[in-house]
Specification:
The complex is a heterodimer of chains A (about 280) and B (about 260).
Chain A (H helix, E strand, L loop, with lengths): L3 H6 L1 H27 L2 H22 L3 H25 L4 H21 L7 H6 L7 H20 L1 H9 L1 H6 L4 H40 L5 H26 L3 H27 L4
Helix pairs in contact in A: 2-7, 2-10, 2-11, 3-4, 3-5, 3-10, 4-5, 4-10, 7-10, 10-11, 10-12, 11-12
Chain B lengths: L22 E11 L2 E12 L3 E5 L6 H9 L5 E9 L2 E2 L7 E4 L13 H13 L7 H13 L15 H14 L4 E4 L8 H16 L3 E5 L6 H4 L2 E6 L1 E7 H4 L2 H8 L2
Parallel strand pairs in B: 3-8, 3-9, 6-7, 7-8
Antiparallel strand pairs in B: 1-2, 1-4, 4-5, 9-10
Helix pairs in contact in B: 2-3, 2-4, 3-4, 4-5
Classes of the chains: A mainly alpha (about 280), B alpha/beta (about 260).
C-alpha cells in the first residue's frame, strides 16, 4: 500500500485532490440551498436529463465547460419545461411527467453514447473519473466553483427569505421567481462541474448529503452552507486516497462516504434526543 | 427615531405617546379565487393605535383580506384599493408585516430566534449592506420587548406556541413595521400564552402600531381588540368592538 506521501508524489493525484476539494466544496455549499429548497428529487432528475445535452455538445463542438453547460442547460430546460407543459395540459401530475421525461432523456443520452465515434468510456460519464482530470478540466472546475460560490454568497439574504417563506418574501419585494430560476441554473452548473468527479448518476449525492448531515444538528443556515462545503471537500479528498489504496472507483467512494456519514449522524441524533429527553 | 421616509415610530419601552395617526384605507376591495368570490367590496379605515379583529365564519374571507393587505394575493378594486399613509400600499410595503398562521411556517428551518428576528432587518439592509450597531440595537430591543432575550439562541423548532408567535412579532418589530397583520394568532395558545399575547397587543397599539388579526373567539374579542370588522365575504359590520357585536350582526355574519 502506498503511503500518503507516495500518493501525493503523482501529479495526477495532486490534481485530483485539488479538483476534488474544489468541486466538493462548491457542491457541498450548494447542497444547503437544495436541502432547504426541498428539491433533492428534482435535482436528481435534472442530473439524469443532462446526459443527452452533454453528449450532443461533445459531438458537435467537443466537450468544454461552455459547450457542456449550454448542452446541459438546453437538455434540462427541455425536460423541466416539458414536464410543466404536460402537467398543465393533461391530468398527469408534474412528478410523473418529470419521471417520464428524465428517464427518456437519460436513455436517449445512453443510445447516443453507444453510437459515439472512437471509444467512449460510458462509465466515466455515468460515474465520474476524477483521477483522469486534464488541466483544462481543472480550470473549468475553478471557474464554475467560483461562480457558484460568489453568486450564492451575494444573494444569500434574499435566497434565505425565499427558502424560508416564499410568499412573505414576495410581499417584501424579493423577486422570488427569478431567484428560483437562478438557483436552478446554479444547480445545472454544479452538476456539469461534478460530472468529472462523480458522474451524472452519483452527482446528486454530493449535492444533497453534505448539508443533510448538518441539518440534523445545525440551527443556522450558514452552518449548512459552509459546513456542507467542508464536508463535501473532505469526502472528495478522502475518496481520492481510498481509491488509490483499495483500487475502487472514486465517485462511488465519495457518495458512500457521505451517505455513511449521514447514517452515523442520524444515529447520533437519535441517541442525543433520547438522552436529552429521558422522560418522554 | 426617524425611518427613511419620515414616518415616526415611538421607541419601545418608553412611555407611550403616539405622535402620528397614519391611516390604512381600504375601499371597494374584492378578491376572486378563479370563479369563487373570496371577498366582495370591502371598505374600512383603520388608524395607528387601533387593534382590529377580523371575524366571521370559515371561508368568510378573513385570511384572504390579510393576504390581500400583505400583497400576497391579487385583488381588484372599484375605487381606491389599499391606501396606506395617503399612498398606494405598494409604496411602503416594508412598513407592513404579515405573520402567517403557525401551521404555514416551516418550523424545521435551521434558524435561531435571533436569526429569525435579524431577518426583519433584511428589508432595510437589502442584499449586501452590513449589519450596523443600530441594526443590532433594533434586534436587541425587539427581542427584549417580546421577552425573548433569554431564548435568542434557541432553534425555532424548540419554542412553545406562544413563544413562536412572539418570535414572529419580534421580527415585525425589527422590520420597524407600523402595521402588523396576524392570521389566527390566538389559535392553539394556552390561556397563559393568550393572556400574554393580549397584553402585547395593547402594548403595540399604545406605541402607535396598527394591529389587524383574524380571530374567532366571540368571548374574548371585546377585551382584546378596540375595533372589529365582521365579514361574510362582503363586510357585515365595522366599528368599535362594542358597536359591532349586536345580536343581529352576529347572526348575519355567521349565517351560511
Amino acid at each position: 500500500m502506498m503511503s500518503i506521501g507516495e500518493i501525493l508524489a503523482y501529479e495526477h493525484n495532486q490534481e485530483a485532490i485539488f479538483a476534488g476539494a474544489l468541486i466538493g466544496f462548491a457542491n457541498g455549499y450548494l447542497s444547503g440551498y437544495i436541502v432547504l429548497r426541498k428539491s433533492a428529487l428534482m435535482v436528481s432528475s435534472l442530473s439524469h436529463s443532462l446526459l443527452p445535452g452533454l453528449v450532443v455538445a461533445s459531438f458537435l463542438v467537443g466537450l468544454s465547460a461552455l459547450s457542456g453547460f449550454a448542452g446541459a442547460l438546453i437538455a434540462a430546460l427541455i425536460v423541466g419545461l416539458g414536464a410543466i407543459l404536460i402537467s398543465k395540459r393533461s391530468p398527469l401530475d408534474g412528478h410523473s411527467a418529470l419521471g417520464i421525461l428524465h428517464t427518456g432523456a437519460f436513455g436517449a443520452g445512453l443510445l447516443l453514447l453507444s453510437r459515439a465515434p472512437g471509444n467512449v468510456d460510458l462509465d466515466h460519464w455515468l460515474f465520474g473519473d476524477i483521477l483522469g482530470l486534464a488541466d483544462a478540466d481543472l480550470w473549468t472546475a475553478h471557474g464554475i466553483s467560483a461562480v457558484v460560490l460568489l453568486t450564492l454568497t451575494a444573494f444569500q439574504r434574499p435566497l434565505l427569505l425565499m427558502l424560508f417563506e416564499p410568499s412573505v418574501a414576495r410581499s417584501v419585494g424579493v423577486p422570488v421567481k427569478q431567484l428560483d430560476h437562478l438557483l436552478m441554473a446554479l444547480c445545472v452548473l454544479a452538476l456539469v462541474n461534478s460530472l468529472q468527479a462523480v458522474g451524472c448518476i452519483l452527482s446528486i449525492g454530493l449535492l444533497v448529503t453534505p448539508a443533510a448531515i448538518l441539518h440534523l444538528f445545525a440551527s443556522s443556515p450558514r452552518v449548512l452552507f459552509w459546513g456542507g462545503g467542508l464536508l463535501g471537500a473532505a469526502a472528495s479528498v478522502a475518496a481520492v486516497f481510498l481509491s488509490n489504496w483499495f483500487d475502487c472507483p472514486t465517485g462511488a467512494t465519495i457518495v458512500v462516504l457521505l451517505a455513511g456519514g449521514f447514517l452515523l449522524a442520524f444515529v447520533a441524533r437519535q441517541i442525543s434526543d433520547a438522552v436529552m429527553r429521558p422522560s418522554a | 427615531m426617524n425611518s427613511e421616509n419620515g414616518a415616526m415610530l415611538i421607541p419601545w419601552g418608553t412611555e407611550a405617546g403616539c405622535a402620528h395617526t397614519h391611516a390604512l384605507q381600504v375601499s371597494g376591495l374584492s378578491v376572486d379565487y378563479g370563479k369563487i368570490a373570496a371577498l366582495r367590496d370591502v371598505t374600512f379605515e383603520a388608524r395607528c393605535g387601533q387593534s382590529l379583529a377580523l371575524m366571521g365564519r370559515n371561508g368568510a374571507g378573513k385570511s384572504t383580506l390579510l393576504k390581500a393587505l400583505a400583497g400576497l394575493v391579487p385583488y381588484s378594486s372599484t375605487r381606491g384599493g389599499i391606501v396606506w399613509r395617503g399612498q398606494p400600499v405598494e409604496k411602503n410595503r416594508r412598513e407592513i408585516a404579515y405573520l402567517p398562521q403557525r401551521e404555514e411556517v416551516d418550523w424545521n428551518f435551521p434558524i435561531t430566534v435571533r436569526g429569525l428576528v435579524e431577518m426583519g432587518r433584511y428589508a432595510h439592509l437589502g442584499a449586501w449592506r452590513r449589519f450596523g450597531t443600530r441594526d443590532l440595537e433594533v434586534v436587541d430591543r425587539a427581542l427584549d420587548a417580546m421577552e425573548l432575550r433569554s431564548l435568542q439562541d434557541r432553534p425555532i423548532c424548540r419554542l412553545s406556541g406562544g413563544q413562536q408567535q412572539r418570535a414572529f412579532i419580534a421580527r415585525a418589530l425589527a422590520q420597524e413595521a407600523h402595521v402588523l397583520l396576524l392570521d389566527e394568532p390566538f389559535a392553539g395558545l394556552d390561556r397563559e400564552a393568550a393572556g400574554m399575547l393580549q397584553r402585547l397587543f395593547q402594548q403595540l397599539t399604545a406605541e402607535g402600531r396598527l394591529v389587524l388579526a383574524s380571530h374567532h373567539d366571540l368571548g374574548t374579542v371585546r377585551e382584546t381588540f378596540s375595533h372589529a370588522l365582521l365579514l361574510n365575504v362582503a363586510p357585515v359590520a365595522y366599528g368599535t368592538a362594542a358597536e359591532v357585536f349586536t345580536e343581529q350582526n352576529v347572526r348575519l355574519a355567521f349565517a351560511a
